[in-house]
Amino acid sequence: MAERDVATLVRAARTRNGVSQRDLAEKSGIGLRTLREIERGRVRAPRSGSLRRIAEALHEPALLAQVGATAGAEGDIPEDAPLVLRILGRLSATRGAAELLTGTPKQRTLLGLLALQAHQVVERDEIIEVLWDGELPDTFGQLIHTYISRIRLMLEAHTLPGTGRTAVLRRGGGYELRIEGDSRLDILEFGRLTHEAARARAGDDPVHEQALLAEALRLWRGQLLEGAPPRLAGHTAAVEHARLRVASALRLADLALARGQYEEVLAQLGPIARHEVLHEGLHARLLSALAGSGRRAEALELFAAVDRRLRVESGIEPGTELREAQMAVLGDDARTATAMAAPPAGRADALRSVQLPQSVGDFVGRVEHFQVRQYLTGQGPLAAFGAAPVAALHGPVGVGKSALTVQIAAAVARHFPDGVLHARLRTGAPDEVRTALRGFARALGVPTAGLPAGLPELAALYQESVAGRRVLVVVDDAPGERAVRPLLPSGPGGAALLAGRNPLSGLEGAQHFRVERFTADQSVSLLARIAGERRVLAERTAAETVAELCDGIPLAVRIAGMRLAARPHWTLARLADRLADEERRLSELVAGDLSVRERLTSAYEGLDPVLRDAVRALARSADRAFTPADAAAVLRCGGRQAEDLLERLVDHQLLEPPAGACEGYAFPPLVRLHAREQ
């Protein structure tokens, strides 16, 4: 086909779809200059893969047929190029420069769903929901089987010896995409690079951190799974990775602005800001970068555009961060504009003086993460109305409540522009509550000299200071309702996120979320992130045994992973064998200052003497589940008294309640082992 004919076809299709050249270039992953040259008829024999990407980005099957795209034919593929999957943008499978055919739209959607959750089991119900969204054909089971078979054939046909295996495995009622080597799936590579960037940050190496973040962000060729059906594009995992992209870009911008690298900020944040049109943090940093590079007029135009969108689409005015960035531009002070890219000075800076703890870089996602985020930001079925939402997390020892709390707080922080207040309580004693209130009040701008000594007066002053502010209050290790009540923000706008071992069932208006143990897949995923993916995948069965012996407790799994990382000469089978010895299991679950036994001892010693006696007696008398009648016989008390004791142990997260009407109470394995030592 002549260059003129191709140019006419592409230009007509783009015009028909109302898409600009810049947007089409971004959606198709083709350079803007290259697209312009194609439309001008100046490219001799445009590559079929490029034309096919243009046709798919425009959803123009007629154009695809007319240009005769044949990318994926065997003759186009370098013999030594490995298979690479990409979903940070439009879904693609490539070998070298050749793009492979990935099948029908439904098959591509299924491949995208598996890649989005690589190394995790995707259940059949989730596949059905994403592929058909309620319009289920009679032959859906056979269709899923067909799509999986075709995906397997494509992966096997293009997997080279010695380049690492890529396969779809059957796991119970679902399927799992396994890929050896992060670089062969861009979303895994993005996770690896951001994890390394977090390590660099912890090691106070901003130059290396910035380089890693820049490399990670370059993997994005557009929005994740560009052009995918809404059920896939809006998947929880997709939303979370889009958030991580924004968070990485914000951190990179802060590092680059501090070094005066304004063009780097514009290059990295520009493509993201076109989709995050209401994200004030992104646009505040863009204002700073434009002002710093001498483009004050463009910065003010950008502010005016964001201001209009906020008022029209959300009915709100720009927040402090964006407004102060605008004022810095109006003052023609580039240095001030740079400073405004970080959280604004004054009130927000004061709030940041109460810092969230460092989040773990190898955090494994869980369903509670998404549920609590939705609740705190007023989304989803549990959204609170009127009063400030209060989310109260509870769960067993070592289940990861603190890590989850930090991750959630960091994820929703942008919804609370007035800042985040954090406190960790131990006993809930009045002096401890008073100390927390004084810290909160100072963070809200109250002078230390003006703080009253009495707890009621201090609580009243704090409530007056926090009223009307969009603040998130985070309280970890919440010991009880009485201790946390004075810390909760009142009225709309604010929110509270609480975490503690016991459920705060007496807290008015709180929504309770139990943090569950890890599934086997989540445990293996955490092991792989700590001890090395290739190493863990090579002994998948042994890894699952380690996960089972750790009882799905993230602390125990983390310790196991750290021991493996410190001992590269150990196999996972060797560690599983050591953990299998019940008499030594708790002694094995120690790494540095992390110890499962110490955490359980702290929980045990926090019980009153009656409960401690009950734990010892019950743990030594039964390996299996027991009824209240069984407990009454062991404890030598009445049936009602025995049941009350069991329920109190359930509240303390040291006993699992009956799973059904005909089942009994049971000790989690690690709790039982610890109790028998007492």
TrEMBL record:
Q: Which domain of life is it from?
A: Bacteria
Q: Name one Pfam family in it.
A: HTH_3
**Domain named OmpR/PhoB-type: which ranges?**
75-179
| PROSITE patterns the UniProt entry points to | HTH_CROC1, OMPR_PHOB
Q: Which residues bind DNA?
A: 75-179
- Key words, A-Z: DNA-binding, Transcription, Transcription regulation, Two-component regulatory system
Which SMART domains does its entry note?
BTAD, HTH_XRE, Trans_reg_C
Instruction: Please report which protein family the annotation says this sequence is part of.
Output: Belongs to the AfsR/DnrI/RedD regulatory family.
**Protein name in the entry:** BTAD domain-containing putative transcriptional regulator
What high-level taxonomic lineage is stated for the organism? Bacteria, Bacillati, Actinomycetota, Actinomycetes, Kitasatosporales
